[in-house]
Design brief:
The protein is mostly helical. Helix content is 74%, strand content 2%. Helix 2 packs antiparallel against helix 3, helix 4 (101-120) packs antiparallel against helix 5 and helix 13 (290-310) runs antiparallel to helix 14 (318-343). The protein is globular, with a radius of gyration of 21 Å.
């Protein structure tokens, strides 16, 4: 079903309208009252979240010939708006009274909007526009602190994004010529009769941009530097939210744009998935900076998320595995970053004795870190069970084994963070955890457990 009704885009309009209103309002507010923009953006996200939930009850359709409204879009909308709302909560302490507080929230909203469109686009031209909208505000946010590490992080983020974006544009151009159109429906019909080698080149070039957004190998080099150099709140955002749109876009392209019977896609993505999860885990072992450790953790998580992408069209488990894992990963990763923001320190030694100083915060971190491993009863545990099942059902047993081995291996570097928290720390003078970040850490850890324990409900509805 196809129609052109602006009401179908109400969640996106809520985010966009709030971003514009926030920018205009912040231009006339004194520095001490720019918190009003944060409240305004939070309200817009809540409105977007509610309208997205209501829209999820409707039948699937295409609006404006380029925007799909289906379960993939519904979950992308809900997870992105909810995750961005948590990030705004995390920013309440560090950015309160900042002279560019309203600009920060406006950029955050625009990046979130681009991420949603990225996951819902069913046309290559809209996909490129979404890539830019999700990316450019992120480059600015990475250098928001205007210090040396942030400037370096922003420069690396921008240069890699621009380079891989150019490759993506080249792929779009090639696929447009081969498929005689840019809509996924046209491509699915046209690419079937095109030369296979040329199609493969176009797909690989297109993957360059999407893998950059996902933080997957070989486009992962920006992740540790940006995570360490950018402000902590920005690091939490860029390692979580853009990935959601990137993986949704990858899955949609595989299912809707590629012609049936292309056996090179599963193998290509499966190899990238195995390389990504392995490299991320191996690099994380040597890290003593918790932000870099989480950065390589997010790279390894991208590898797991690529498993259902590889199995797209081969098994019915692929889509629920991807969607549930995205939701579980988002809440768990933000929970871990919330603890880092609350503590305000990046070295592992600073977390020694955290269980004695702030028991609930330590428990929240343990839940989130073990959740990233895939320990029951957390949300990521259910997500990993689903991706293992998808790989086995898609006859890629070796990929399921690789994911299982990497999950076990990841336990060791997470334990390097957990174990010191249980020890006694000599001396005092520890700063008090930031209140807003502390409560969000509690909520995220609880959300991970609730989502894992109650996994049967969303899976049954889906």
């Amino acid at each position: 079903m196809t129609r052109e009704n602006p009401a179908d885009l109400l969640p996106e309009l809520c985010v966009l309208g709030t971003a514009v209103a926030g920018l205009l309002t912040g231009s006339f507010l004194p520095r001490t009252r720019q918190w009003i923009v944060a409240v305004l953006c939070g309200t817009g996200l809540v409105a977007g979240l509610v309208t997205a939930g209501l829209a999820a009850r409707r039948a699937d359709l295409t609006t404006f010939d380029a925007f799909m409204l289906d379960p993939l879009t519904h979950v992308t909308r809900i997870v992105v708006t909810a995750a961005t709302l948590l990030v705004i909560g995390l920013a309440a302490g560090p950015l309160r009274g900042h002279r560019r507080e309203s600009e920060f929230h406006t950029l955050l909203m625009l990046a979130a909007l681009g991420t949603i469109v990225l996951g819902a686009a069913s046309d290559l031209l809209v996909l490129v526009a979404a890539y830019l909208l999700a990316g450019i505000p992120g480059y600015v946010l990475a250098g928001f602190g205007k210090d040396a590490p942030g400037t370096e992080a922003a420069l690396k983020y921008y240069l890699m994004g621009a380079f891989l974006g150019i490759l993506m544009l080249a792929g779009v151009t090639l696929l447009f010529g081969l498929g005689r159109g840019t809509s996924y429906e046209t491509l699915a019909a046209g690419l079937g009769t095109a030369p296979g080698g040329a199609v493969a080149v176009g797909v690989v070039l297109l993957l360059a941009g999407l893998m950059f957004k996902a933080g997957a190998v070989p486009a992962h080099f920006w992740v540790p530097d940006v995570t360490e150099g950018a402000p902590r709140v920005v690091a939490a955002f860029v390692t979580t939210v853009p990935k959601i749109g990137a993986f949704a876009a990858l899955y949609r392209f595989a299912v809707q744009a590629l012609p049936p019977g292309r056996d090179d896609w599963p193998l290509l993505v499966a190899v990238i998935a195995a390389a990504t999860m392995t490299l991320g885990n191996l690099a994380a072992f040597a890290q003593r900076n918790v932000r870099r450790l989480l950065a390589y953790s997010t790279i390894s998580q991208a590898g797991y998320l690529l498993v259902p992408i590889a199995m797209a069209g081969r098994t019915d488990l692929a889509e629920p595995a991807l969607l549930f894992y995205l939701a579980g990963y988002a809440v768990t990763n933000l929970g871990a970053f919330a603890v880092v923001i609350a503590v305000g320190r990046d070295d592992l030694l600073a977390y020694t004795g955290l269980a004695r100083r702030s028991p609930l915060l330590a428990v929240s971190l343990v839940v989130c870190l073990l959740g990233l491993v895939g320990t029951p009863p957390t949300a990521v545990f259910v997500g990993k069970l689903l991706i293992f099942g998808a790989a086995l059902d898609g006859h890629y047993t070796w990929l399921a084994v690789a994911a299982a081995v990497n999950s076990v291996a990841s336990v060791f570097y997470y334990l390097r963070w957990i174990v010191p928290m249980m020890r006694r720390r000599d001396g005092g003078g520890e700063r008090r955890p930031a209140p807003s970040a502390r409560w969000i850490a509690y909520a995220a850890a609880g959300g991970s457990l609730v989502l894992g324990i109650g996994a049967g409900i969303p899976l049954a509805i889906g």
